[in-house]
Amino acid sequence: MMGCKTERSDYDKMVEFGQEYTEAWNSKVPENMASFYAEDGTLTVNKGTPAVGRKQLAETAQSYMEAFPDMHLTMDSLTVADGKYRYYWTFKGTYSGPGGNGNRVDFSGFEEWTMNEEGLVQTSVGTYDAEEYQRQLAGK
């Protein structure tokens, strides 16, 4: 009989990482989200200007958390190819923060992660349908 303890695969560890990252977003504490990144980690969304370092990463998270006080992120799946992980997510919330119009959004996207040696996100490239997001924000 083999021992009861089995070694978890790297993929299983990354699924857990993704679940904890999701919880960090839902904690509404921006620094929790930023802590999943290397000190000099980057997040680029839809080919925009990257957030570089934990301070800017936390500011990026804060902007969503303030605009959508009831935001809820779910992890849809996690895939791996060529050493990069794709974290697929769905974001739901009501645009009721400062300047908000009360419209609800429900959109999905993914982040492609390159991890560093410490097991933190070094580079994240995020993608979602910006036109659909804008249409929902406008309530159309």
Automatic annotation (TrEMBL):
Listed InterPro entries: Cyclase_SnoaL-like, NTF2-like_dom_sf
Biological process (GO), any one: polyketide metabolic process
Database matches in Pfam families: SnoaL (PF07366)
Name assigned to this protein: DUF4440 domain-containing protein
Organism encoding this protein: Muriicola jejuensis
Lineage: Bacteria, Pseudomonadati, Bacteroidota, Flavobacteriia, Flavobacteriales
